[in-house]
Amino acid sequence: MEVKTLLLQQWASCLDEEDWFPPLEKVLEDITLEQAIWKPADGSMNSIWELVCHLLFFEKRFLMRFLGETENEPDAENNESTFQLPNETLENWKETKKEYFYVHRELGKILAKSDHDDMYRQIPKEDYPLVLELKSLAMHDAYHIGQIVFLSKMQGAWPEKRSF
Question: What is the mean pLDDT of residues 29-58?
Fold first, then answer.
């Protein structure tokens, strides 16, 4: 099996294909605005929405860099600022999810269309080529999807019976 096939499967499992962990699209499906902004009282964790903003920041930045649109890429002072929320409205929560799903799918399309040279070419402002950056982003997604599931369970928002 080739690297591209493995990476496409890993990329899809983070968004909409069930694997060893639930895909983010399913995890966020029924999350309300109140659940999205909820944090444990001790402030030890980011909210679900903050985590989605964080994932979106890194995927969107990488997409812009891959497309050569570095002047339009999102910018952050530090890692902590990548968790920043827009105004906490239901419309903005829906928009954040929609944008994340769009960016994730666009990166998947790029990977699917990439030939060997595209997969291994150096990307402006990145340390690694497409294949290695997407592998790292997928692992990053999986890590934070686990946190989102945990936050859902802490709130009692995780259904008792799921298909995964």
Answer: 95
Q: Is the pLDDT of residue 52 over 90?
A: yes
Confirm if 119 and 129 have CB atoms less than 8 A apart. Answer: yes
- Sign of the dihedral defined by the CA atoms of residues 52, 139, 79, 130, in that order: negative
The three-point CA angle 8-145-43 to 5° equals: 155
- Region 19-35: mean pLDDT is 93
Is CATH 1.10.1660 the right assignment for the domain spanning 3-17+44-154? no
Residue 148, pLDDT score: 97
What residues does each domain of the chain span?
3-17+44-154
What pLDDT was estimated at residue 1? 62
- Give the CA radius of gyration of the chain: 16
Burial class (CB in 10 A: 0-12, 13-18, 19+), 53: buried
